[in-house]
TrEMBL record:
GO terms under biological process: Golgi organization; protein transport; retrograde vesicle-mediated transport, Golgi to endoplasmic reticulum
Phylogenetic classification of the source organism: Eukaryota, Metazoa, Ecdysozoa, Nematoda, Chromadorea
Keyword Cell cycle listed: no
Annotated organism of origin: Bursaphelenchus okinawaensis
Family: Belongs to the COG4 family.
Pfam family, one: COG4_C
Full protein name: Conserved oligomeric Golgi complex subunit 4
Localization in the cell: Golgi apparatus membrane
């Protein structure tokens, strides 16, 4: 179909449809008897313009089509399109042929790769068997060499050489012993004969080494003892060597323990350290055991394996516990610890009504000795943990009484990258189980030994005694409270915090995190109850300092107020000091224990907030009683002045202030005496409270007055003088206390209501919402030259 004819038909169809719609609209309009003549004329004009645009677009589309097809028309275009399709089909056939050829080549390569892989696997298997055969041949040769060598060494009584041959024999692969005696001509040359010689020699050598070791012990020949001790692992008898050597060390520990105990019973060697005699004796014993372990650890590591050190310590810890408990029992009896605990417990249970009582200072020496004993024990445990490597030492190559690992097994353990994924997973699981077992063993050794449990028991008693010492000392400090002449605080503050700090620091020297946390809790409880209640009772129930009464009551109130404020600083200092002590004495604790300490010391922050809040309440009481009535009467004097003043009056007031100069002088007269009797923190807080109260009083007075423009300017001048006075004596920060008053005065000093609304929004955005929309209208009505009706129409 010709393109031009097609568009002409479409045009006629659209035109006819449009005409029909227009006629229908006209008929409906005529039926309604409305006159739409003008509207119809406009619609026809628009329709004609649209038809002209449509014609132009059709002509442009036709020109573009003719240009694209070019001379020759559609036939030339179709011919070109058919040629392109033919080329695409030809390329598609070529691609299909190449893909089939590539598929065939890949299949051939895959088959060759499979064949090569199989042949390589066969070669690897053959290589492995050849290596095993060579190793087996070497082992067979070593077997005969060991048999000949051990016979010669036993005859010459060279037990070190004999043990070396036995050790080599025990490390041979078990496959050697399954090889038959094919081709053996002489009975003495058979593998069975060599095996029997070595097994017999192993049994005989074990008996001889045990005998020689016992003889060395009897003769106290240290050199021979170490020599034969090193031979036990060579014949795969680790447990016997460790057991006998452990018995030898236990004997040495017992002898030293007896010497230390006798010396302790005699009173020691230094009279100056008689108060810590038992702690020093326990220290000597534990240091002696640590030196023995340190001396013989290299032998254990080199000949038995690092993991065997735990087994040896487990053996000697029995004797160590025995000797330690003996010293601790003597300490408990001589220092009468249980009796003191009975008295203290009874006294605390009856809330001080029990007649029996111990003087706190009599416990000082005892508490110090307990902490020293626990510290020394803790150091000993840390030494053992460090030597045992926190149970992460590498395992020795041999198991308990089991055969040593073969060279092949050793190689497998070294070249872990050659193991399969399953083998690596199995090895990791085995190591995990061994590590768990070792940790369990170490936990039982260090935390469940008799020494550990006994020290935990004594530490529990220490906490009770320390709590009693701290509580009774604080009570005595409260009873003996005194104040030096000219001092702003009483002796109670220094005494109480010295006692609390001393007790907590003493618990830190015990190196027990649980003990430190317990004492921190007790200290905070004591400060929050006895100490705080004593000071707060004076603030809460003290008589007004403004009322007539004894001067001592006024002084007591102000001293209590200063004590409460200074206690906040003391708490901050105590917290920082304790953190430094933690770093010095408890730096090696675990994350969990550090978290415990942080939580415990955080109680001091909460306590500081409570003391600070109580001090603020006390300042409020002081303002209410000593300042509020006089501030009210001084501010009410402002009502006696006219505030709708002329220009001449405004200029005169600049020279001779009628109100504010006197108001400031009266306020300064009230404030000045407190500068010398309050601490700096309390004095600054008092000034802030007075400034806030002054602002409220002046606001109440301003609401009862009316101002013209000059009167508002005079008010601004007066409030600036007041703010400047407080800024000079208290600093710039006190201006925030007068923020609401400043906004009120600012509103009253604007020329128009629009400026007032703008100022209100700007103040709310930059200074905070000190005034509400109701306040805005309420204070603007104080301007006599502003229209009340317009003020009521303000929308914020």
């Amino acid at each position: 179909m010709d393109t031009e004819n097609y568009f002409e038909q479409e045009e006629r169809l659209i035109w006819s449809n449009n005409n029909e719609k227009v006629e229908e609209q006209l008929e409906s309009c005529l039926e309604l008897q409305f006159n739409f003549g003008q509207e119809l004329a406009e619609l026809r004009a628009e329709l004609e313009i649209t038809k002209q645009k449509e014609d132009r677009l059709l002509e442009e589309v036709q020109r573009e089509i003719d240009t694209a097809i070019g001379p020759g028309g559609a036939e030339k275009f179709l011919k070109s399109f058919d040629q392109s399709i033919a080329r695409v089909c030809s390329l598609n056939e070529c691609m299909k042929s190449d893909a089939k050829q590539l598929n065939s080549s890949l299949h051939t390569v895959s088959t060759l790769a499979d064949n090569i892989s199989k042949k390589v696997a066969v070669l690897d298997q053959a290589k492995g068997r050849v290596v095993e055969c060579l190793q087996l041949v070497n082992d067979l040769r070593d077997l005969r060499t060991c048999a000949e060598g051990v016979q010669k060494a036993m005859v010459e009584k060279d037990y070190d050489e004999a043990a070396q041959n036995i050790h080599r024999f025990l490390t041979l692969d078990s496959a050697v012993f399954r090889v038959g005696d094919v081709g053996a001509k002489e009975p003495g040359q058979s593998l069975k004969h060599s095996y029997e010689i070595l097994r017999t020699a192993q049994t005989e050598l074990k008996t001889i080494i045990e005998q020689k070791f016992d003889e060395s012990l009897s003769a106290a020949d240290e050199k021979s003892i170490q020599r034969y001790f090193k031979l036990f692992p060579m014949i795969n008898d680790h447990s016997t060597g460790l057991r006998k050597f452990g018995s030898y060390l236990n004997k040495k520990i017992g002898q030293s323990g007896d010497e230390f105990y006798k010396l302790m019973q005699a009173g020691g060697t230094d009279d100056k350290r008689i108060n810590v005699l038992y702690a020093d004796t326990l220290t000597l014993l534990l240091e002696h055991i640590a030196r023995l372990i340190e001396t013989y650890q290299p032998i254990i590591d080199n000949f038995y394996g690092p993991d065997k050190l735990l087994d040896l310590i487990e053996i000697i810890e029995v004797e160590a516990d025995k000797q330690s408990i003996r010293i601790i029992s003597a300490f408990l009896m001589k220092r009468q610890l249980d009796e003191k605990i009975r008295v203290v417990d009874g006294y605390m249970r009856t809330a001080g009504k029990c007649a029996d009582k111990i003087e706190p200072r009599d416990l000082d020496v005892l508490l110090a000795e307990i902490t020293i004993m626990h510290t020394r024990t803790e150091l000993y445990w840390r030494f053992l943990k460090r030597r045992l490597g926190e149970a992460h030492r590498p395992l020795s190559e041999s198991g308990e009484d089991g055969p040593p690992l073969s060279p092949k097994a050793v190689a497998d353990s070294v070249f872990m990258d050659e193991l399969s994924e399953e083998e690596l997973k199995a090895a990791a699981e085995k190591q995990k189980l061994l590590k768990k077992e070792r940790n369990k063993k170490l936990d039982a050794l260090l935390n469940r030994s008799e020494l550990s449990m006994k020290m935990q028991e004594i530490l529990g008693k220490y906490v009770l005694l320390e709590q009693y010492y701290m509580t009774e000392s604080v009570k005595k400090g409260i009873e003996m409270e005194d104040v030096e002449e000219g001092a702003l605080t009483t002796s109670l503050l220094d005494d109480v915090f010295f006692i609390v700090r001393k007790s907590i620091r003493r618990s830190i020297t015990s190196s027990s995190v649980d003990c430190v946390c317990a004492m921190l809790n007790n200290g905070c409880t004591l400060l929050e109850t006895d100490f705080f209640v004593h000071i707060n009772k004076i603030i809460k129930h003290g008589k007004s300092v403004a009322e007539a009464g004894p001067e001592s009551q006024r002084t007591a109130f102000l001293l209590a107020l200063n004590n409460m404020a200074e206690a906040v600083k003391f708490l901050s200092t105590l917290k920082q000091g304790l953190k430094d002590e933690f770093e010095r004495h408890l730096g090696a604790v675990s994350k969990n224990e550090k978290h415990k300490l942080d939580n415990s010391v955080a109680q001091l922050d909460d306590l500081g907030k409570k003391f600070s809040q109580s001090a603020s309440i006390g300042i409020g009481k002081l303002v209410d009683s000593a300042f509020k009535p006089k501030l009210k009467s001084n501010a009410d004097a402002y009502l006696n002045f006219n505030h709708e003043i002329s220009d001449d009056e405004f200029a005169e007031f600049e020279v001779n202030d009628p109100f504010m100069a006197n108001f400031i002088a009266q306020s300064d007269k009230l404030i000045a005496p407190f500068e010398k009797v309050l601490t700096e923190e309390n004095y600054n807080e008092l000034l802030g409270a007075i400034m806030a109260e002054t602002g409220r009083r002046l606001e109440a007075v301003i609401l009862q007055l009316y101002f013209n423009r000059n009167g508002a300017l005079q008010l601004d001048r007066e409030t600036r003088s007041l703010t400047e006075y407080f800024t000079n004596i208290a600093g710039w920060s006190i201006r925030s206390k007068a923020a609401r008053l400043a906004q009120i005065v600012g509103l009253l000093n604007l020329d128009t209501l629009d400026e007032a609304v703008a100022y209100f929004h700007d103040s709310a955005a930059h200074q905070g919402q000190a005034l509400t929309s109701a306040d805005l209208k309420k204070f603007l009505k104080l301007r006599s030259d502003f229209s009340t009706e317009k003020i009521n129409q303000i929308k914020v």
